[in-house]
Amino acid sequence: NETEMRDILLMVYNALREKGYNPINQIVGYLLSEDPTYITNYKNARTLIRRIDRDELLQKLVRNYLEE
Q: By CB neighbour count within 10 A (0-12 exposed, 13-18 middle, 19+ buried), where does 30 fall?
């Protein structure tokens, strides 16, 4: 579900930002490597991001990028 995926990404993004990380770099690192240590445990962000299907998210991102 796209809304849930977006909500999770926003929560993870905000948790990373609050902890002083560069959220974009950390999320990209996670997506490329599937290494959960890119994502902080703060506010349960690591557990949340693992609920997202990486392939589905990457497809959505590429699709949106090309449609702009």
A: buried
